[in-house]
């Protein structure tokens, strides 16, 4: 007598439960990042950075139940890039007008 062919077991069916929800902090981070580039440059960028980091931490700790890491990262990128642009603009302003004042002071005008 020969042995019967091995029976393959199908993978378990997905458990029916609540679908993952999007993190509210991630949405807030993205919205504030956009506001940081449009209507609230300073405040929107800072709020986007803070809520983006909080959202990523929240998503990592509740991984299967929450999603929205991409939204949080987009908010972080928008927030940090606005801060970088603002710092660069301030530095260029200081260098430009500092150079003008230095020229005026040294020329004796």
From TrEMBL:
Keywords: Membrane, Transmembrane, Transmembrane helix. Signal peptide: none annotated. Pfam families: DUF4190 (PF13828). It comes from the Bacteria. Residues 1-20 are annotated as: Disordered. Residues 25-88 form the DUF4190 domain. The keyword Transmembrane helix applies. InterPro entries: DUF4190. The chain crosses the membrane at residues 25-50, 71-104. This is DUF4190 domain-containing protein. It comes from Lysobacter spongiicola DSM 21749.
């Amino acid at each position: 007598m020969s042995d019967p062919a091995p029976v393959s077991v199908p993978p378990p069916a997905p458990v029916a439960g609540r679908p993952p929800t999007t993190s509210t902090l991630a949405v807030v981070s993205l919205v504030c990042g956009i506001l940081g580039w449009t209507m609230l440059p300073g405040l929107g960028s800072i709020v986007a950075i803070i809520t983006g980091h909080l959202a990523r931490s929240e998503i990592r700790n509740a991984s299967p139940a929450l999603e929205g890491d991409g939204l949080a990262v987009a908010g972080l990128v928008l927030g940090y890039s606005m801060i970088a642009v603002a710092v660069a603009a301030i530095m260029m302003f200081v260098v430009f007008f500092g150079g003008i004042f230095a020229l005026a002071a040294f020329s004796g005008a």
